[in-house]
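INPUT
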Amino acid sequence: MSEAAPNPWRRRALLGLPLLAAGGAGLGFWAMLRGLGTGSYDPHGVPSALLGKAPPDFALPAPAGSELPALAASDLHGLARPVLVNFFASWCVPCVIEHPQLMALKRQGVPVFGVAYKDKPADALGFIARRGNPYTRLAADEPGRVAIDWGVYGVPESYLIDRQGIIRWRWAGPITEDTVAADLGPLLRRYSA
Amino acid sequence: MALLLLAGGWTAPAWALSDPAEQLPDAAQEQRARVIGRELRCLVCQNQSIEDSDADLARDLRRIVREQVAAGRSDEQVMAFLHDRYGDFVLLRPPFTAGTALLWATPVLALGGGALLVLGLRRRRAAPVPAALTAAEQARLAELDRMP
Amino acid sequence: MIPELGHFALGLALALALAMSGFGLVGAHRGEARLMGLVPPLALGVTLAVVASFLCLVASFVVNDTTVSAVVANSHSAKPMLYKISGTWGNHEGSMLLWVLILALCCGAVAGFGRTLPSALQSRVLAVLGLVAVGFLAFILATSDPFSRVWPPPMDGNGLNPILQDPGLAFHPPLLYLGYVGFAVTFAFAVAALIEGRVDAAWGRWVRPWALAAWSFLTLGIGLGSWWAYYELGWGGYWFWDPVENASLLPWLAGCALLHSAIVVEKREALKTWTVFLALLAFALSLLGTFLVRSGVLNSVHAFASDPARGVFILGLLMLYVGGGFALFAWRAQAMAPTGVFAPVSREGALVLNNLLLCSVAAVVLVGTLYPMFADLVLGQKISVGPPFFNTATLPLAVPLIGAMAVGPFLPWKRARLWPALQKLWWVALVALAAALLCLALEGVRVGPALGFFAAAWLILGAKADFAQRIGLFSRPRAAFGRALALPRAAWGGAMAHGGLGVTILGLAGMGLAVDRLALLHPGESVDLAGYEYRLDGVVDAQGANFAARRATVEVTRHGRAVVTLHPEKRSFPLARMTTSEAAIHTTWLEDLYVVLGEEREGGVVLRIHDNPLAPWIWLGAGIMALGGGLSLSDRRTRVAAPAAKAPALKNPAVRA
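OUTPUT
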């Protein structure tokens, strides 16, 4: 033992390194598991690359037969109040789930602009006619190219645009009551001021 | 593959069997598009490149890559186009940033750290050992040598 | 009744394992032979109880007992018998039971074959294995009971995911688990050594067979999984650097380092602390894989349906065993002073280099796998670490590793000179260079494949040269045959495993030259690829055991001569509401002709045709590697007994410990 090491403490530290690494990793995993429960850690979520930026330049037509005005990038500047841009499709089940929330937002006076993603005009209009129309503007993105410019990777997906026309928040997936209470509501209040 | 069993999540095995008309007529350009596509992550299906996935979005992204390659854009420009829209997540080769420096340094750190460890142990041994080979040890060594 | 028996047997196993651990630890500590004598029979009891429990679950699946919820969720009466049985472990609960079954079998093996071990060591090893078993049995009973009942029973089960209904995949988990759990035994040996505070040549000799066995099974398991992905997923991919794949590669790398460093312990009594660390690490990485796959923290196509409650339990077990092992290491490894002096150029020097490079590769894979999760958690950044990263980051480490692999076996122990070893390999280097140049000449400037062919030739011929030198093929050819027979099997095994990796790399290099083509064909039309002509004859309906299929007939000809008729299929499973694609593959051993059926439109069908040069050699190489491990193992078995006989002679085996 005596001649073992010139600096036993360095060796001891070295031998303790695996334990330290394992402990750190364990703590991290524990935080992840907790985050999974509370929703703060989600291995499947993809953040938007457009937060804090203006939306891409685009001009989409209204679906054929729609009475509502269409949507272009120029419609998202100098707004009276923040707006929600909602990508949806008649073939998408979660869109049905979030629909009541959009109707509630409309009743609160929040402008919701709809973009029908990869949807036939008749189907999109039928969806609105059947379930009620939450939208003040409605555009059709049948090829799905403008959606890609926005960084959309599925429907439904919603973007909050502030009065200066900057994207402040993106929600991938259906907007639920919890989403409104926890995220969207406070943001709307902040950016309305 | 080490798979076992994906209980949920996978609705269909993803084989990217798409439209032959999608391919670029120019073989060199098609090859370039594929190389680019393998660097880009399919966002819907997780852990697959857009070349390997049959998801709708992957198809669209494949088409965009091919259009841009055909239009004469460079590899970097095509990647930047998608990076602007989907962020770092879409790049299967993470860009070198402050946040990924440790990741990219891993091979060097592991090799360097290991080499230091080996050198340190050698130096420590080299100093006291020559005289320390006891008779018992020598006998043991000799015995070990006789073993096949 | 049968499920209740199975459940009871699990509880019994838990109690027996607990008793085994207690008696083992206390008995070994106090040196009480009577207590220690109880341990092996208890271990056999655990084995029997778990085997009985597992058979009960298999029986429930075989008779399709729909009162058992695991059966309902994963089986169906119309499923073929093989998949009813493999469905037993095709789900979270059953696969955990399989895990414990293999652990119990290992306990039985240590109790049975380990009679030559010193009884204190055997007791401690079994006690540690017992503790591992206790944890996982408790996990099963508390969170993942495979025997829980449903009432009223549904008419039939929901069926197994169709892409898992495959013979390759039926045996993939058992092989993989044999590997993972095998490292539990080396872990137990390491912990026992830390408790005893000594590691010697005999310890190295006992650990090595277990490391070899675990590594060989893991090689087979990974190879089988990769092969399955290749033929079943239908785009010719075989390795995706998916986190779950990486989770199986990590213990493989650590185990590979372990079985090499254990040689140094055995022959030179050096690298002892390091070897103990690797033995702990290999099992730690096995457990990490289990945690990643089952906890839901991971973003992978292969992950089980996530359940954070289970995740917390497994994390607890992970921390208990890994943290406990490493804590013991930090505390006790100090006692194992480094011994053995060696020159950098020597067999042991080469093995140190091997360990350094293998562990660096493992570090890259580990960090690459965990980085996105931790970047998300700590920095809030979502990044992806995919194949391009892993290929780029591991290649510079793999190249010197492969370079050294052929040279290492030529270096004698203790002190060697590099030059004589290289002289024996000059012709190998020449042929390898020629192979690379040939590839460049035939296929154009393709660096990857050319490098691959160089590496493959270097390893395969290097292994052959090693073998030839050992039997004196060139120096004394007439005696060579006799010497070949007399050669220890470990030497055969080592050369074979190294050559096997060369064969795998040969396949990888060939796949680097793969080409494919996508075509819309109408019946009678044909398309050319890589010198073959593929003609579509037609598409018809076909009926399988539990699926309906569309089946295409594709005639393949080469220069007008018929080669083969291929039948790619698209199967739809009504129960699972899923469609799968069955690629039709014809191998000539030099290349795979691989045809996948796509969608039908405009009276024609889309066919994706791949020409995959040398593809089968990837998995053949894995088989050869595992066989090499097995050969080495069969040699060790006869020698495992030897140290026990010599034990009295080693009054103070750990010379300075």
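end of record. Chain A touches chain C through 30 residues (CB under 8 Å).
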